[in-house]
Amino acid sequence: xxxxxxxxxxxxxxxxxxxxxxxxxxxxxxxxxxxxxxxxxxxxxxxxxxxxxxxxxxxxxxxxxxxxxxxxxxxxxxxxxxxxxxxxxxxxxxxxxxxxxxxxxxxxxxxxxxxxxxxxxxxxxx
Length: 126
Description:
This protein is of the alpha+beta class.
């Protein structure tokens, strides 16, 4: 097997089932004051570390540079994000060949458009 195709021993998949009864709306009251502060810092850190964005049929894949944000930091952001946005499906992994993290952020109807709108700065980069 080609070593460049090996996936790192550490991989994490956090699934939040995209159900039709889960509204496509963020619950801003899901956080304590401390969690909101932590979430705000983490979302800025994680999104500023995105090096590539790829289309999925129901969302996007974000490649994240682990020299800027660690796998654990991304996982901690996902743990917080899922509290306020239960309509997302999160899939998080690491490639063994370059160590970069990938985050699939996807979900049901309307989620892809929501992501493009909410994270528009990632799509505006040239």
